[in-house]
Structure formats: structure tokens, C-alpha cells
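Page 37, continued from 36.
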């Protein structure tokens, strides 16, 4: 099941400036996995992924990077790999 979700997420993100969004997706999945491994709930893991996406875009805005709101959602979407429905 997780492999299918990853494949679907990867295909969906591949169409939208792939390398950057895919990197955000993988980072979100890594954060969510870490939070759950440390005892967090799936909802906390998704919230952490989204928070990391927001923090990264805030840092981009402060330090001269390109701010893209879609990057926040791509990072947050990474939690679907670890969220159990």
C-alpha cells in the first residue's frame, strides 16, 4: 500500500516542475516518518511536515530565495506515505 501511495504522489508531482516539488515531497515524508518513529501520531506527523514546508518558505523569503506556496503543499503532501487511513 505505501508503495502505491508513493508512486501516485511521485507521478502527480512529476508534472509540476518536478525536481523541486519531488524534493519537497520526499522531505515531508522524511519528517513525517521521523515524527511517527519518535511516538507522534499520524496527524502530528502531517502537521510537522506542513510546518517544515512553511518554515522553509519563510526562510526563503527572509534570505532572498524564491517563495512558492506550492512548495508548502508539496512538503505537506509527503505525510501521505506515513499516514494510515
Amino acid at each position: 500500500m505505501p508503495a502505491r501511495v508513493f508512486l501516485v504522489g511521485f507521478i502527480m508531482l512529476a508534472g509540476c516542475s518536478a525536481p523541486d516539488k519531488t524534493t519537497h515531497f520526499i522531505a515531508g515524508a522524511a519528517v513525517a516518518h521521523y515524527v511517527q518513529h519518535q511516538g507522534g501520531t499520524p496527524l502530528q506527523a502531517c502537521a510537522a511536515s506542513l510546518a517544515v514546508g512553511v518554515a522553509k518558505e519563510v526562510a526563503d523569503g527572509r534570505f532572498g530565495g524564491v517563495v512558492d506556496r506550492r512548495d508548502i503543499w508539496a512538503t505537506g503532501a509527503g505525510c501521505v506515505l506515513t499516514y494510515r487511513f
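The chain has a mean pLDDT of 80. Flag for discussion at group meeting. The radius of gyration is 13 Å.
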